[in-house]
Amino acid sequence: MKKFLIIKTGSFIGHADDIIEKYGDMDSVFLDADWCPRDRAEVVSVYLDEKLTNPPTQYSGILITGSGSMMSIPEQWMIDTSNWIQKAIVTSVPILGICFGHQMLAHALGGLVGPNPNGLEAGTVDVYFDTKCNDDPLFFDFPQQAPFHVHHYESILSLPEGAEILAGNDIEKKHVVRFSPYAWGVQFHPELTVDIMNILIDSLADGIKTAGYDMTIIQKEVRETPYGFRLLNRFYNFAERTGRIKL
Hints:
The chain has about 250 residues and is an alpha/beta fold.
């Protein structure tokens, strides 16, 4: 049985140490969401220069995490990972990019990533889904509007050829992008719980306040995001089902 690959592109260490103490690092937070059995997951920490040595087809699916790094300031591990992702896309192994991972997918396929002209987006925000989602295997029954947790300075500024926007809002027009029939990216964080989001906001408060946000309002607006876990579960099941069909 194939493993499910989690490409870990960053850490809470030095950014949100209180999350580490209570819940563990990014990969633990993802797996605590209980969408992928831990014994099925393989985590490769590319930001620590761990190498993606296996071909993409050895995995049932691929998830790319968020990161405190910026795609607009490339490091060698980002270049190497992007090159591997290019190969993964053509194999039709299902891929889901989260926040930084969303941006890395766009970059790998020829899109442009940089600072969001609207500035930092932080907190729990409403994301609006296009009717194009009606035929999408991940988002077909999502409501027109749903809340998600976010924190990002950079965004996809121009899409790679063939990519399609499925959801957005006034600050982030490209919250959900379908890059191919088997590859998606989301700018929001489906893995975060309310408690983790509250800790993250407190940990990053200086930057949030510098960006002009009222912390009282940001903290008050944090709420449950039930469609985040639904997305993770659905993607995992899609990857497992797709893998069986290909076998």
